[in-house]
């Protein structure tokens, strides 16, 4: 059997593996579909995480996070790639009672031919309703961060909402903002293909930030008022600068992205004059800002329901779809080297 791993920074390969025995509380899934994570996972893939121990990363063979869970200590060659998988349960332990052989399920897992996961008291292992879309299912993770960003921004009926960065999180945020009653949804992304998809799913206007004063254009579109909420998913300092410029007085910037180092960033008079609020949004940080009413589990359960009942439509977001046989080269191309060619890469086994 084969699995997709990073053999060195920015190098992916399919390698052989053998499954260990399934424990009493576990199930084995034969994987049919999957998807990597184009954000934080690729940062690790490039050995560019702020949690890397520099003494070891320079050798290109050992990945040691400083703070975020030392148990993650990843060795290249063993660092499995992938985020979500969909497949069929083919084996189960004696203590498993909530699942049966043949159940179609979705779970967090690497891109490998089989995945073994805990199936007892594990709400992250989700049964797939009959006829449900695998493309929606593999968007389970980005949907959580999109929904958290929209909720933390306090999007309300009639608001002007701007979503900066139209990757998977931004695309889902567009849909959620529009369905929440935003009167004007503006997408910002330099990639025309992403803008076209956003327009099909709720964006009223899209802007290319290259060569455009985005903040000024937002003010023009809103009769000088500005945006009530700006959801920032790109992580670029220029995008945050434009958000401060285009924000309505007292508006909120919901900052979802992992920020890159900021250069030439100016928290000057526009931030003060617009009385900007910046909220750093992260669905998996506990306690949630709305705790105890909302926690990570409730966010996940709500997103799963919205994905499975068709309230959210992620069919256009899974592009391209590649075979598992071609996944190593495709990962390096679409996820790492030329991410502008993909929103979220899908994999068929």
Topology:
Elements: E1 2-8, E2 11-16, E3 26-35, H1 40-45, H2 54-57, E4 62-63, E5 74-75, E6 79-80, E7 84-92, E8 104-108, E9 114-118, E10 126-127, H3 134-137, H4 140-152, E11 160-164, H5 168-179, E12 184-188, H6 192-200, E13 205-207, H7 214-221, E14 227-232, H8 237-246, E15 247-255, H9 269-273, E16 277-280, H10 296-308, E17 318-323, H11 327-337, E18 344-348
Helix pairs in contact: 4-5, 4-10, 7-8
Description:
- The protein is an alpha/beta fold and about 350 residues long.
- It has 11 helices and 18 strands.
- The strands form 4 sheets. Strands 3, 7, 8, 9, 10, 17 and 18 form a 7-stranded mixed beta sheet that branches. The protein has a 6-stranded parallel beta sheet with strand order 13-12-11-14-15-16, sandwiched between helices. Strands 2-1-6 form a 3-stranded antiparallel beta sheet, with helices on one face.
- Strand 15, helix 9 and strand 16 form a beta-alpha-beta unit.
- Helix 4 packs across helix 5, helix 4 crosses helix 10 and helix 7 runs parallel beside helix 8.
- About 45% of the residues are buried.
- About 5% of the residues have low confidence.
């Amino acid at each position: 059997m084969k699995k997709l791993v990073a053999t060195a920074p920015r190098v992916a390969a399919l390698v052989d593996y053998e499954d260990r025995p399934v424990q009493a509380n576990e199930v084995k899934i034969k994987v049919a579909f999957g998807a990597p994570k184009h954000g934080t996972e690729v940062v690790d893939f490039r050995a560019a995480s702020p949690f890397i121990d520099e003494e070891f990363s320079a050798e290109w063979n050992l990945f040691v996070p400083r703070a975020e869970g030392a148990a993650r200590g990843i060795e290249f060659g063993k660092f499995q790639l992938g985020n979500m998988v969909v497949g069929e349960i083919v084996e189960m332990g004696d203590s498993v009672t909530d699942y049966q052989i043949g159940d179609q399920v979705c779970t967090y897992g690497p891109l490998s031919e089989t995945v073994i996961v805990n199936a007892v008291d594990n709400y992250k292992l989700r049964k797939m309703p009959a006829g449900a879309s695998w493309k929606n299912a593999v968007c389970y993770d980005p949907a959580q961060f999109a929904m958290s960003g929209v909720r933390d921004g306090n999007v309300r009926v009639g608001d002007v909402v701007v979503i900066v960065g139209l990757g998977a999180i931004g695309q889902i945020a567009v849909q959620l903002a529009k369905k929440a009653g935003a009167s004007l949804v503006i997408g910002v992304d330099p990639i025309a293909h992403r803008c076209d998809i956003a327009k099909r799913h709720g964006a009223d206007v899209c802007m290319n930030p290259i060569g455009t004063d985005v903040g000024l254009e937002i003010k023009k579109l809103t009769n000088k008022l500005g945006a009530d909420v700006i959801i920032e998913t790109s992580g670029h300092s220029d995008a945050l600068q434009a958000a401060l410029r285009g924000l309505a007085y007292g508006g909120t910037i919901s900052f979802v992205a992992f920020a890159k180092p900021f250069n030439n960033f100016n928290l000057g008079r526009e931030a003060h004059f617009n009385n900007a609020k910046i909220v750093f949004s992260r669905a998996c940080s506990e306690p949630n800002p709305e705790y105890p009413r909302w926690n990570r589990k409730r966010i996940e359960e709500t997103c799963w329901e919205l994905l499975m009942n068709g309230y959210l439509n992620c069919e256009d977001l899974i592009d391209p779809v590649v075979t598992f046989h071609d996944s190593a080269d495709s990962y390096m191309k679409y996820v790492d080297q030329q991410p502008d060619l993909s929103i979220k890469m899908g994999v068929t086994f």
